Amino acid sequence: MSGIFGIYSDRSCIEDLIWGTSYLQHRGQKYCGWAVLSDGKMNYQSHAGKLREKFNFRDAERFSGNVGIGVVSSGDRQPVSELSKFGEFFLAVDGNVMTAKELKEDLLLQGHSFSGYYDPSYIPDNVLIGKILATHELLDGIKKLNEMINGDYSFVILTNEGIVATRGWGRKPLILGKSEGRYVVASESCSFPNLGIEIERDVNPGETILIDKSGFSTLQQLQIEHIQYGTFEWVYTANASSIIDGISVELFRNRVGAKLAERYPVEADVVSEIPNSGIGYAIGYANQSQIPHGRIFVKYDYADRSFTQGTKREQEMEAKRKLIPLSSIIRDKRVIITDDSIVRGTQTQQSHVPRLKERGAKEVHARIGCPLLMDKCGYGKATKKKEEILAVKMGFTSDDQVARHLGLNSIGFTKPEDLAEASEKPIETLCLSCWGL
Ligand code: SF4
């Protein structure tokens, strides 16, 4: 998974580029990179680690230029570069190619080589996408990608003419914004407010946009038979301040929380959340049920998102380390906790429920912002291994089994139709495959 950003500006873009990309850091912390066009020459850097730790603003003059792209990634090093029929370009991708092995073999048969520093047994998806694009004229290459790729993507390309931004089937968000003299594209709109950028609109599934000194122009709109919006973006991935395909992420979570209160009422003293992505659900639940909302955990600010940590042990330790329980509030209370999802059970199972009970909680009820996860995501989210998913690993078929296993008094999962209602989208346009639907 990645966060991608691009800017065309009437002044030096480097500060906006770095800050704008850094607001997407929650989408990946393994690599970061940027490329800037200056006087017809492209300069770039990429590093392992987080963007703000790697970019030194004192060096900003080395990257002067008024057009650039930036990326943060949890997978592969980015951006990648290619020489092509339409000139040199740099590419940053948020996406996943499910048939990467077959695609690599096809490209080798067509005479392409993958030389350089890459491990030949593992060619990253962004390199494959770059190769396909480089083989054709730009728009033909994008059309070809759409035909050849099983997976999904959004990407930005830095060319000599400006930035080209493309969205695949809809699972990967991409949004346009502008202010006087600045035209911007980003994975999420949370990059915009603090830069003084206003939302223009989402890039449509199948659409390719050119961003240059004239602003935004649609170069191509492919017919997408089966639009699939990335439901998990609203559920968990996206920053609460983002607006994705017209729907505020925070409002989505509030609506789902309210629906959970209607579907699964229970007498309790406090509604709280597993911070941060559980907060919006807790507010919605509390408002609907009239049960007070309060904190029972304080998030330790220097902990990372647990899914981005390496080993399972590291993920469990990080999940535990990041929340400090408020014992004096928990004692003798009937507690409702909200969370975005149950994937491996890392958050609720390994530590939090037992910790609440140890601190004197009389009852602990969980309300979850999506259905029970049943499958891995094939489209580039962190859940790559089906056998790691709690319900799959344990063979659970009922909510009661999950509640017993996690030591909860009760559990309630959001229904798919409630996700559709909260997102104001027809259910058939929502990607629901990680729920086995
Ligand atoms: S399978 Fe789930 S996580 Fe993956 S793109 Fe679809 S909704 Fe998102």
Structure description:
- With 437 residues, this protein is of the alpha+beta class.
- The chain folds into 2 domains: 2-225, Glutamine Phosphoribosylpyrophosphate, subunit 1, domain 1, CATH 3.60.20.10; 247-435, Rossmann fold (3-Layer(aba) Sandwich), CATH 3.40.50.
- The protein contains 14 helices and 23 strands.
- A 7-stranded antiparallel sheet has the order 3-2-4-1-10-9-11, with helices on one face. It has a 6-stranded antiparallel sheet with strand order 5-6-7-8-12-13, covered by helices on one side. A 4-stranded parallel sheet has the order 17-20-21-22, with helices on both faces.
- Helix 3 (100-109) packs parallel to helix 4 (125-134), helix 4 crosses helix 5 (138-148) and helix 7 (249-263) packs antiparallel against helix 14.
- The longest helix is centred in the middle third of the chain and has 15 residues, at 249-263.
- The chain is globular.
- The structure holds iron/sulfur cluster.
- Iron/sulfur cluster is lined by residues 171, 230-232, 377, 379, 381, 431, 433-434.
